[in-house]
Amino acid sequence: MKRIFFSWMIGFFLYTFSLQAQTFSIITEKSHPYLGCVQLEDLPPNHSNKEDLQVFLYSQDPDNVARPIIGQQIVEANKIYFRPLIPFNTKLTYQARYRQLPPFTFQPEQEKNYVPTVLTNIYPSIKELPENILKMYLYFSAPMSDGDAYQYLQLTDENGEIIGSPFLELKPLLWNEDRTRLTLWFDPGRVKRDLLRHQKLGVVLEKGNTYTLSISKNWKDSNGYALANDFTKKIKVVDADRIIPNPKNWEVIVPKVGTDDPLIIHFKESMDHALVTNSLSIQTKSGEMVKGEIVLQKDDTAWQFRPSESWKVSAYQIQIKAVLEDLAGNNLNRLFDRNIEKEKAQKEQLSYYYLDFQIGTGQK
Predict the structure, then answer these.
(1) b (16+ CB within 10 A) / e for 248-268
(2) Is 347 among the domain residues?
(3) Is 167 in contact with 213 (CB distance < 8 Å)?
(4) What is the pLDDT averaged over residues 95-120?
(5) Cβ(127)–Cβ(234) below 8 Å
(6) In degrees rounded to 5, what are phi and psi of residue 315?
(7) Which residues pair with 52 in a beta bridge?
(8) Structural domain span for residue 323
């Protein structure tokens, strides 16, 4: 009997020790790959790779059982991490649960000296936009959280009426690699005139009207903190753009030989901000690329290229990707809003277009 009791005491002691050894924490180290995640250390040997670690919104009401927060469980060595799909909110209380362990209740703390994320730019930056505008780009000063961004965006008319579902609500969101630029598509079904959504609902933006795009500061960055402030952009709508961009109509200002003055291209209209950044390049007639710095100017109506080395006497050409678009999604080969049945009758579809220019001898 004593032997049974003694064995039971040893087992109980080991079990209690194992519970104490397994500790919860929140990763706060900036350089840690799981910053902001829940961490559980010293996993028991019988741990499985199932979704054992779950996190809930904390409630003091035992009858109010919340659903687990959506996230990813990551197991590494003797540690397990829970990464929420949407970062934890510093204004909410959570509870992490793992099998027989006591629950871990926590409220994330905002970092000391934390610099709030801000919305730095919206493109197109011009106030007057065509009725059939296709895309907008939102730029942030730091990485943003993933999830439902559309709940933080609101488009209203000049009477304050909310425009229903103006954007194509894509999942996943169209973030760039570090989640500092979000691409917003206006509903293409309402841009293309032959589609049912256009015929039933009409365009999102009507020419002659003024709209306000509002972005709520409640939108969270990748650390779970709200934006520094709300943001609004006024939009005045003008006629639809149904003209294919034509490089032959652009104005090219050629620099002088022996200088590093920029070559400047005036498009005579605003172009798609993201595409125009990487759709043009300079090369010699033999195909050698010229290195340099690109800057967009005047609300994306002008492209400036400053070479890394001084211009030499030579014949050059500007290489332009045919996918370059204007604000209405019209690229160098075709209109965005087009009759697909007549597609075959359109001009040849090219991958690149070229503009020649001369530096030095015979320069005009």
Answers:
(1) eebeeeebebeeebbbbbebe
(2) yes
(3) no
(4) 86
(5) yes
(6) -95, 130
(7) none
(8) 247-359
What type of residue sits at position 201? Answer: L
Domain final residue, candidates 106, 129, 144: 106
Cβ neighbors of 49 (< 8 A, separation 6 or more) are: 73, 75
Beta carbons of 263 and 255 less than 8 angstroms apart:
yes
Mean pLDDT of the chain: 87
One domain for residues 349 and 259? yes
Question: Cα–Cα distance between 364 and 249 in angstroms, integer?
Answer: 17
Query: What's the number of domains the chain is made of?
Result: 3
* Alpha helices (runs of H) in the chain, residue ranges in sequence order: 2-21, 188-191, 196-201, 273-278
Predicted pLDDT at 43: 75
Residues 144 and 233 grouped into a single domain: yes
15: left (phi over 0), alpha (psi -120 to 50) or beta: alpha
Q: Do residues 358 and 364 make contact, with C-beta atoms less than 8 angstroms apart? A: yes
Count the neighbouring beta carbons within 10 Å of the beta carbon of residue 146. Answer: 16
Residue 74 · residue 39 · CB < 8 Å:
no
Identify the helix (H) or strand (E) that includes residue 80. strand 79-84
List, for residues 148-203, the tens digit of each pLDDT value.
Answer: 899 999 999 999 999 999 999 998 999 999 999 999 999 999 888 888 888 888 88
State pTM to two decimals.
0.74
Same domain, residue pair 253 and 325: yes
- CATH code of 134's domain: 2.60.40.1220
- What is the average pLDDT across 342-348? 59
Task: Count CA atoms within 13 Å of residue 298 on its CB side.
Answer: 11
Neighbours of 163 (CB within 10 A): 15
- The Cα–Cα gap between 186 and 358 comes to 41
Of 82, 106, 130, the position where a domain reaches its end is: 106
